[in-house]
Amino acid sequence: MNCRKVKRLLGRYLDKEIEGRLLKLIESHLEKCAACRGELENLAAIKKMFSDKERVKVREGFLVRLKAKIEAGEETEKIREKEVETAGILARRLIPVPLVIILLLLISLPLFYRRASIDSYIWGSLGGEEIGILSGALKAQDLLNELW
Predict the structure, then answer these.
(1) Is the pTM of this model over 0.85?
(2) Residues 6+ apart with CB under 8 A from 47
(3) Could you tell me where the DSSP H helices lie in the chain?
């Protein structure tokens, strides 16, 4: 018998749940294999450690109260999940609102900054000499408009 199979059966062997031919195969393997014997000793030590502890007595109705708390915790978790889902839906619906506000501010802010207007955007990209020529032309146009 190989080590992998024996190690799988060591718990049952320790609890004396194995009989017959399989029991003899395991025992003969344990005589030859130090690794599996060490594994068996470790399992025996763990079993002893847990069996030596005294049992804790719980009050009557403990399991009922525990079950109720677990169910209440599950309900609380469901409520949290629903709140998170609702917040996500709300966030997805409200994301366009700040974007529109930011765009409106970006578009309108220069209009209120100093003497900014549509004309200042046009004039802002021109050099000094070009502005002089255009302003002279506009004055001439204003003059013509007044005459007509």
Answers:
(1) no
(2) 14
(3) 3-14, 20-32, 34-52, 62-94, 96-112, 118-124, 128-147
